[in-house]
């Protein structure tokens, strides 16, 4: 069992599984590495750096011959030995490690040279940058009160703006078949459905796109959280919007799921909101009276009521039956009771409930 919690940059670069995942060569690795990213959030910055290096190296490698790459690695190793590596340390160095290190330095060097040639313009994604650089005049609303401020947009969408938060939007509101709102702070959105003109929220480097739904956006410091109440919402980092290779980082959120975006690391993770709410109408109260029900039926009921996917091995658990009466307990309390009753356990991964069980007799 690998100790991913102790992994450093070189460990990720040398890990065949990690490289295959980054390069998209084995989709079966998605669950493993997404789970590791979420399990060790302190490693996300290193994971991102390793991913960038691998992708940069792969991109640049396609433009160089093998002889040129070997020459660059040899030159860097020689330079490194002459300038900074004491002799006694060179004698103990592992060649595999240094090859990886040289690859890192080479990738950084090539990346720097490429950057120096292109000199991309800064990509400001702060609220002030959005507002000052927008080509059309914007209407700004600031909540200076100590209560939530209800705002009705021109398309009849409703925003509940929390104190000290502010939004801006263009007039006319629909431009180029887009409805765009720029947010600083926190706001709850009830978006009027309009499939011809999608609704976009820009907040601290994260783009949230919807057609018609209810969701909460909280932008504070370097993080942004998007919590979905109903409908479907997609989120993507602004830095990846125009990069087709990174568009696979776009996440789709369904009710009771949330995304957390780190602007510093340009990473998005998906999970379940702290207190999931039932999606059914009040006059159709769900029945949680499970009288010797197959566990598959129990999980199906919870999926339907809360809209949260369950992942489990039905072959192993096909002999598990549940006899328990639940009422208005919170979602996670129900989950605790069910799992304890049948001797199973669960964890949350990528916005799903993953059930682990050895089966029932």
TrEMBL record:
Domain Protein FecR C-terminal: 287-355
One protein family per Pfam: FecR
Lineage top rank: taxon: Bacteria
Domain (FecR protein) ranges: 144-233
InterPro entries with a match to the protein in the record: FecR, FecR_C, Ferrdict_sens_TM
Residue stretches spanning the membrane: 97-115
Keywords carried by this UniProt record: Membrane, Transmembrane, Transmembrane helix
PANTHER family documented for this protein: PERIPLASMIC SIGNAL SENSOR AND SIGMA FACTOR ACTIVATOR FECR-RELATED (PTHR30273), PROTEIN FECR (PTHR30273:SF2)
Protein name as annotated: FecR family protein
Organism for this UniProt entry: Dyadobacter subterraneus
């Amino acid at each position: 069992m690998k100790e991913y919690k102790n992994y450093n940059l070189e460990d990720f670069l040398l890990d065949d599984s990690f490289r295959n995942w980054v390069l998209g060569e084995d989709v079966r690795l998605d669950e493993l590495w997404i789970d590791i990213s979420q399990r060790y959030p302190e490693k996300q910055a290193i994971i991102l750096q390793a991913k960038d290096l691998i992708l940069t190296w792969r991109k640049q490698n396609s433009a160089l011959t093998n002889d040129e790459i070997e020459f660059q690695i040899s030159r860097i190793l020689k330079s490194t030995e002459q300038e900074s590596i004491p002799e006694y340390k060179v004698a103990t160095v592992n060649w595999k490690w240094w090859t990886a290190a040289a690859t890192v330095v080479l990738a950084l060097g090539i990346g720097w040279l490429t950057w120096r040639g292109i000199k991309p313009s800064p990509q400001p994604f702060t609220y002030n940058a959005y507002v000052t650089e927008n080509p059309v005049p914007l209407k700004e609303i600031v909540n200076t009160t100590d209560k939530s401020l209800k705002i009705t947009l021109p398309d009849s969408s409703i925003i509940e703006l929390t104190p000290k938060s502010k939004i801006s939007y263009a007039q006319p509101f629909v431009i180029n078949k887009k409805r765009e709102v720029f947010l600083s702070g926190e706001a709850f959105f009830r978006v009027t459905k309009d499939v011809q003109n999608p609704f976009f929220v820009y907040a601290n480097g994260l783009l949230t796109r919807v057609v018609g739904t209810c969701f909460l956006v909280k932008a504070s410091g370097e993080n942004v959280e998007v919590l979905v109440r109903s409908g479907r919402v997609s989120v993507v980092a602004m830095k990846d919007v125009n990069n087709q290779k990174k568009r696979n980082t776009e996440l789709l959120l369904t009710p009771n799921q949330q995304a957390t975006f780190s602007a510093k690391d340009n990473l998005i993770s998906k999970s379940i909101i702290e207190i999931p709410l039932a999606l059914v109408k009040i006059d159709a109260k769900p029945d949680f009276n499970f009288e010797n029900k197959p566990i598959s039926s129990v999980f199906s009921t919870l999926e339907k009521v809360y809209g949260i996917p369950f992942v489990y091995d039905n072959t192993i658990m096909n002999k598990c039956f549940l006899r328990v009466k639940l009422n208005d307990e919170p979602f996670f309390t129900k989950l605790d009771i069910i799992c304890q009753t049948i001797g199973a356990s669960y964890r949350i991964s990528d916005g799903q409930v993953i059930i682990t069980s050895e089966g029932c007799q």
